[in-house]
Design a protein that fits this description.
The protein is of the alpha+beta class. It has one domain: Aminopeptidase (3-Layer(aba) Sandwich), CATH 3.40.630. It contains 4 helices and 5 strands; from the N terminus they run βααβββαβα. A 5-stranded mixed beta sheet has the order 1-2-3-4-5, sandwiched between helices. Helix 1 packs across helix 2. The protein starts with 6 loop residues before the first strand and ends in a 14-residue tail after the last helix.
């Protein structure tokens, strides 16, 4: 069922955070940070209110939150650059393939452009073909490869 443009709400500071936390926890539980949900939640709380942090909620008809996006600027001290990075993008399974994630990304792009940033990046699991495909349709390109090893 396609939605007609979900309402995208920017969460300001910790005031609206409680409403976003259930979806944010689900996003973290599905991703590689599932063992570190508490630390990730602290990072979100500490980051909110800063120029580089952004927490968006997608609202549907009625009091239903459909999805969430959290991004924060990540600096590279060697290059002297700061790029916002999408740390969490989650849409309820029953609302996927309805444009919710695309609407969240579009708002994030608009907000970061207005804040003076020239790009937005996202870490995407290499097996997540649906997310990679959506990103490529929106103009995102693969720039870097991450390698990791369990220690």
């Amino acid at each position: 069922m396609a939605l007609k443009g979900p309402e995208i709400v920017e969460v300001q500071g910790s005031d609206g955070l409680e409403g976003a936390l259930p979806l944010l926890r689900r996003a973290l539980a599905e991703g590689p940070a599932r063992e570190r949900v508490g630390a990730a939640e602290r990072f979100v709380r500490e980051s909110l209110g800063g120029r580089g942090a952004l927490l968006l909620l997608a609202r549907g008809p009625g009091p239903v939150d459909l999805g969430v996006l959290f991004a924060a600027a990540s600096g590279n001290p060697f290059l002297g650059t700061s790029v916002p990075l999408v740390y969490a993008l989650f849409v309820r399974p029953e609302n996927r393939r309805a444009g919710v994630a695309a609407a969240l990304l579009a708002r994030a792009e608009k907000v970061y452009r207005a804040r003076g940033y020239g790009e937005l990046a996202a870490e995407v699991p290499y097996q997540d073909d649906a997310l990679i495909s959506m990103g490529e349709r929106r103009g995102y390109v693969r720039e870097r490869e991450w390698m990791a090893k369990d220690l």
